[in-house]
Design brief:
By secondary structure, the protein is an alpha/beta fold. It has helices at 11-20, 23-29, 41-45, 51-59, 72-90, 114-117, 124-136, 141-154, 159-169, 175-186, 198-204, 220-227, 262-266, 298-303, 308-322, 330-336, 378-385, 396-406; strands at 247-248, 270-274, 291-297, 306-307, 326-328, 342-346, 360-362. It has a five-stranded parallel sheet. Strands 1-4 form a two-stranded antiparallel sheet.
Length: 409
């Protein structure tokens, strides 16, 4: 793996990450910023690998008694599927408060202050998190929670403003996982707000993150009271900080220059659409001679801009599958596909609203059993999604993967 690039945009890099994961170390050290976390999320978000593929790759090497259905690693995969479950049932409702938080919604500002964006709050844990987000497009989950908690509960910024900002800079930015995680921290999607203090940072982060003497160097009782007080802690910007990277609604990358010629190129062809969340190996059962079409959904990107690093990460893999991707809206895509013999793609919540009616959508691989009715909590969902199961081999996603591997294309 190229050590100069934190997230090479290749299938090989994703599979190397899976092969390198050791579940015993993960369970023991995952809360530490330098712990044995997977760093697989950009590859999972963009469909390089599926949750069944990840678990199958790990389970094949694990000592059986160390990787059970109740293992912490399996729970973490479950959280991701649970967030997708909520998105499927609530739709755009995940972008609004699920229920009231510790303060009325109007108590929070809708603008993220400049000193947070510029990593110059003077609180080391916050400024380090922002710097790392900009530099790598990635943050450890603990760092995400610390940053979100500071933004919402101490600076009184509405979680939606923070979630939208973070999504634009994350390589793994997933609307369900990101926005519902911010709601969990904010207390609008959980039973209580998530709070942290300097002692928690000192236990789980390197020294440069430690924040003694700062606003987070307080007892949990004090922090709880602050979370329920409308007044924000005073801003005390320090230093010059860093410049926030630009975000773009169109890719600053090579594109297919002329979308108007696509209809003739695709006429009477079977087509597989490669979109930013379907970047795995092409299905083995596609028709012979099937034509791929790499497509940026213009409506989505207009609403949710990305950093140049994310455009580059996704665009590199899309180009590998089909050459320079094409940016088009739903109407333009429908026109390009109007005379195709058949059109298929992989389902994903980020694109479903923008696919023309002519596209046959294959469901994304699911690891756990489908739960038809919305669940109010992870544990309610988990109980239903694993009902009657006793071991990993009972998980539907692993069974499907094993069956497809045994069936000739």
């Amino acid at each position: 793996m190229n050590t100069q690039e934190p997230f090479p945009a290749t299938l090989a890099a994703a599979h190397e990450r899976i092969a390198a994961l050791r579940v015993a170390e993960y369970a023991r050290t995952r809360n530490a910023l330098d712990g044995a976390v997977t760093r697989l999320s950009p590859y999972i978000t963009h469909g390089f690998v599926s949750l069944p593929e990840v678990l199958a790759g790990v389970a094949g090497r694990a000592v059986p008694q160390r990787l059970s259905l109740q293992h912490k690693f399996v729970f973490e995969l479950g959280w991701r599927e649970f967030f997708q479950h909520l998105w499927q049932h609530r739709g755009s409702g995940i972008l609004a408060d699920t229920h009231p938080g510790p303060l009325p919604a109007q108590a929070y500002t809708r603008e993220l202050p400049a000193d947070i964006r510029q990593a110059r709050t003077g609180v080391p844990v916050v400024d380090q998190a922002v710097r790392e987000l900009y530099a790598t497009g990635y943050l450890h989950n603990h760092a995400r929670m610390w940053l979100a908690s500071y933004v919402v509960h101490l600076r009184k910024v509405h979680w939606r403003a923070g979630a939208d900002w973070m999504l634009a800079h994350l390589l793994d930015g997933d609307l369900a996982s990101n926005h519902l995680s911010w709601q969990w921290v904010a207390g609008t999607g959980s039973a209580k707000p998530y709070l942290f203090n300097a002692d928690n940072v000192a236990r789980h982060a390197p020294t440069v993150w430690h924040s003694p003497g700062s606003v987070v160097d307080a007892s949990y009782e004090t922090l709880e009271a602050r979370a329920r007080t409308p007044e924000p802690v005073p801003a005390q910007p320090v230093g010059e900080g860093v410049e926030e990277p630009l975000v773009y609604t169109e890719p600053p990358l090579p594109l297919q220059a002329n979308g108007s010629t696509l209809a003739s190129e695709l006429s009477e062809r079977d087509v597989w659409i490669v979109h930013p969340w379907a970047l795995g190996a092409l299905p083995a059962d596609l028709p012979a001679g099937c034509r791929t079409l790499a497509w940026w959904p213009a409506e989505h990107h207009e609403a949710w801009p990305w950093s140049a690093a994310r455009w580059r990460f996704v665009g590199t893999r899309m180009a590998e599958l089909d050459g320079p991707p094409w940016l088009g809206n739903q109407r333009q895509l429908a026109q390009a596909l109007s005379t195709a013999r058949s059109v298929q793609t992989l389902g994903n919540g980020h694109v479903m609203a923008w696919l023309p009616a002519c596209v046959t959508v294959r469901p994304a691989p699911r690891l756990f059993a489908e739960v038809d009715r919305p669940c109010p909590s992870f544990f309610a969902w988990w109980k239903r999604a694993t009902q009657g199961m006793r071991s990993l081999s009972d998980l539907p996603g692993l069974q499907t993967l094993e069956l497809s591997a045994a069936t000739p294309p």
